[in-house]
TrEMBL record:
Record localization: Cell membrane
Higher taxonomy: Bacteria, Bacillati, Actinomycetota, Actinomycetes, Micrococcales
This protein's record includes keyword Transmembrane: yes
Record membrane topology: Multi-pass membrane protein
Listed name of the protein: AI-2E family transporter
Membrane spanning stretches: 30-50, 56-74, 86-107, 172-194, 230-252, 258-281, 288-307, 327-358
Pfam family, one: AI-2E_transport
Family to which the UniProt record says this protein belongs: Belongs to the autoinducer-2 exporter (AI-2E) (TC 2.A.86) family.
Organism listed in the record: Microbacterium aurugineum
Length: 375
């Protein structure tokens, strides 16, 4: 039996069916085009607004992640029969003490070591150029490396090059002021988020319909615990890594051990990849001491990487890092491509959150569908 196609009002008026092109065109093209144009302008304005406040959004993002990283410490104090308010106060005091140590001890120490390294750079470079391995490398390459190094140093140390790199003295000054203000904002936001984390989660849960709140609250609690454990564990691993680098740098006679430790801390915040990257950075930087020192550093740090992978990381991270290694690497690469170092840092927490949502929401929903949709 043939099915009859319904006839539209336009077809009844004209007496013939509409063409495919006529069916695709809007009924009111002028109004539709104006609506689309307004939507595009609003999207451009929204993108420009987000780009303009990107620094504020990054500060809020960092403050929330640091607060989630401090939350496991508050929970540990609560398990010791301490009230949450007292636990938050203790953790906040410790956090402020760490910030004070960074500002009053590490920053001046780093500035002194960098200044000393800059002053001793000509003697260090001259001694390196007179070493046997440098002369052998220069002979094998057939290039006057001394001239290349001298020209590079001259181009970097001239005032015009500095202004070109920094964008001008005024821009550089505003950059320093912006960095200081962003640091203060991150500290303040971290303290606020730590103290009001429970109320923030309660407000988010209240936005969900009542019949879904219990399940949503369970998933949100597991996500925050997992993200907090990952952030706290990652920071702990980076601190241990920085201390190991500091000891090795002191042992090989480096003139900037604190600087290398700080660089190691930030680089190794990137999971899995960071330690291998710093192995190259630290080995190349230790070449300025001597080739033997660079070799000792590379071997000692490589040994620590193995110990960290098989002993330290399982004990520190525990179940918080239940993320397959290949997903960690892929997430870090995607995050670094999109947001640079910040994106690489949040790769594991975001990946862990997505896996929790898949395990708690998507898989149970799929398992509940025991029959095909057609019956």
């Amino acid at each position: 039996m043939d099915e009859t196609k319904p006839v539209t009002h336009t077809e009844r008026e004209s007496g013939r069916p509409l063409s495919r092109l006529q069916l695709m065109l809007p009924a009111k093209p002028l109004l539709s085009g104006f609506t689309v144009a307004v939507g595009v302008l609003l999207a451009i304005a929204l993108a420009a607004t987000i780009a303009g406040i990107s620094t504020v959004l990054i500060s809020i993002f960092l403050g929330m992640f640091l607060a989630l990283g401090l939350d496991p410490a508050v929970r540990a104090l609560e398990r010791r029969r301490m009230s949450r308010a007292a636990g938050v106060a203790v953790v906040a005091a410790v956090f402020l003490a760490v910030v004070a140590v960074i500002l009053l001890v590490l920053v001046p120490m780093t500035i002194r070591q960098v200044s000393a390294a800059i002053e001793a750079a000509p003697e260090t470079i001259a001694a390196m150029q007179q070493s046997e391995w440098y002369l052998a490398l220069e002979a094998n390459l057939g290039v006057d490396l001394s001239a290349v190094v001298a020209e590079g140093i001259h181009s970097l140390t001239t005032l015009s090059s500095f202004l070109a790199i920094s964008g001008g003295v005024l821009k550089a000054g505003f950059g320093v002021i912006g960095a200081v203000s962003s640091f203060i904002m991150v500290v303040v936001l971290t303290l606020y988020f730590v103290s009001s984390l429970q109320s923030i989660k309660g407000a988010v849960v209240s936005l969900v319909p009542l019949y879904r709140r219990a399940r949503f609250a369970d998933v949100l609690e597991e996500i925050t615990q997992s993200v907090g454990g990952v952030v706290a564990g990652g920071v702990t691993l980076s601190i241990i890594n920085a201390l190991v680098v500091l000891v090795i740098q002191f042992a090989v006679g480096s003139s900037i051990p604190a600087v290398m430790a700080i660089v190691a801390f930030f680089v190794t915040l990137v999971p899995m990849i960071g330690s291998l990257v710093f192995l190259v950075i630290g080995s190349v930087a230790t070449l300025f001491v001597s080739p033997l020192a660079a070799l000792i550093f590379a071997i000692a740090y490589l040994v620590y990487i193995q110990v960290e992978a098989y002993v330290v990381t399982p004990r520190v991270m525990g179940k918080a890092a239940a993320v397959p290694g290949v997903l960690v690497i892929i997430g870090a690469m995607i995050g670094a491509t999109l947001l640079g170092l910040l994106g690489a840092l949040v790769a594991i927490p975001l990946t862990a959150s997505i896996l929790i949502i898949v395990r708690k929401v998507w898989i149970p929903r799929q398992n509940s569908q025991t029959e095909p949709p057609d019956g």
